Amino acid sequence: EVLTLLVLMYPLLHGLALQLHSAVTGSYVPGTHSIAFVNCLNEQIAKDIARAIMDKKLAAYVNILPKSSALYFWKGELEESTEILLLVKTRTSKIGELSNYIRSIHPFEIPEIISLPIDQGNPLYLKWIEENVPRN
After folding, report:
1. Residues 55-95 pLDDT 10s
2. What pTM was computed for the model?
3. CA-CA distance, 78 to 84, in Å (whole number)?
4. How confident is the model at residue 135 (pLDDT cuts 50, 70, 90)?
5. How far apart are CA 16 and CA 29, in angstroms?
6. Which residue, 53, 70, 104, 130, is most buried by CB atoms nearer than 10 A?
7. What one-character DSSP code corresponds to residue 135?
8. CA–CA distance from 3 to each of 8, 9, 38, 59 (Å)?
9. In which element (H, E) is residue 33 found?
10. Which helix (H) or strand (E) holds 114?
11. Contacts for 74-81 with beta carbons within 8 Å, 24 or more apart?
12. From edge to edge, which strands make up the β-sheet containing 77-91?
């Protein structure tokens, strides 16, 4: 019974240990922050979604990348279009909430919302992300 409890609590205890290590040493724990990629039909939709994300404090920074060409399969057919890409910098712990919120406001039936953890970076920038995206 104690072993089962320890196994179930391991992710929580591991996370707390990493946070404590980070606080004591001042070092960045890889994966604490993430970059989310979100595709948008046009610049106006991209700006509206970016502003909505920022207003909800779900990100510290959003890049709106210019129009690019895209090829993809949709309902069995090869499609070609242009799109605007958002790069959203946030806490990894906010990715679920961010994804749910974007899906609720995005006009696409299945918007692209994927994220990658940030392994390393400028410590001051990573600290800045943390300061600008509330934990809860």
Report:
1. 999 999 999 999 999 999 999 999 999 999 999 999 999 99
2. 0.80
3. 19
4. confident
5. 11
6. 53
7. -
8. 9, 10, 41, 38
9. strand 33-40
10. strand 113-117
11. none
12. 61-74, 77-91, 33-40, 113-117
